[in-house]
Amino acid sequence: MYQLGGMAIYLNSRDTQLGRGETIADTARIMSRYLSGIMIRTYAQKMVEEFAAHATIPIINGLTDLLHPCQILSDLFTILEKKGTYEGLKVAYVGDGNNIANSWINAAVRLPFYLSLACPEGYEPEREIIKRGMEEAEGRISLQSDPLIVIKNADVVYTDVWASMGQEAEREARSQAFQPYQVNSDLLSHASKDVMVMHCLPAHRGEEITGEVIDGAHSIIVDQAENRLHVQKAVLEILLKT
Fold first, then answer.
1. In DSSP terms, which residues pair with 144 in a beta bridge?
2. CATH homologous superfamily of domain 83-225?
3. The pTM is what?
4. Per-residue pLDDT tens for 10-60?
5. Is 144 tagged catalytic?
6. In the chain, domain spans
7. Residues paired with residue 63 on neighbouring β-strands, in sequence order
8. 3-state SS assignment for residue 82
């Protein structure tokens, strides 16, 4: 916002009347009178949807437990910047079927790339999202448990942390379940020779991805991180002009 000439205000639940029992609907209506737009990062997707339903200004989903669309927009821009097209590309997602995986499925429905996901049993993407995605993408989305099959000839390999925010208590169990899904040099050797490696950060080196891969020739993670700034400015410019 500052780079676009505007101002930004950070508010948590203690800074608003939500922490004192005010309804989401009332907060949305009142804040719509004060602000030009709101980005919300929270756990519950339903909270963002309810807020947007009652607001009269643009509401941006900055992150929920279900979806992370702003991250995926930046990732898609980075791929286009590097590859020049989405047509026919194979994106391999290896790891937890979390909000990032769900958002990749939504993207694959809309754009002409192939998405293959490898997740341990019990850690698959949201059932309704993967079901709808497979139906609408007409064969361009697949899900299985074997990372070697998923990563074969992949043009892009993407991973994320094994335990997201709010899942700290599951960390040990998740670490055991996800060990075969670490993105390392051995796994990467099955991908395309010019494969690009992506991670939404922060990364836990030595867990979901090795430091060797993060710092290696195939990594575009730093460029990917930079592009979050540029793409979010574009989102703001588009929405605040309407």
1. 118
2. Aspartate/ornithine carbamoyltransferase (3.40.50.1370)
3. 0.96
4. 998 889 888 889 999 999 999 999 999 999 999 999 999 999 999 999 999
5. no
6. 83-225
7. 41
8. helix
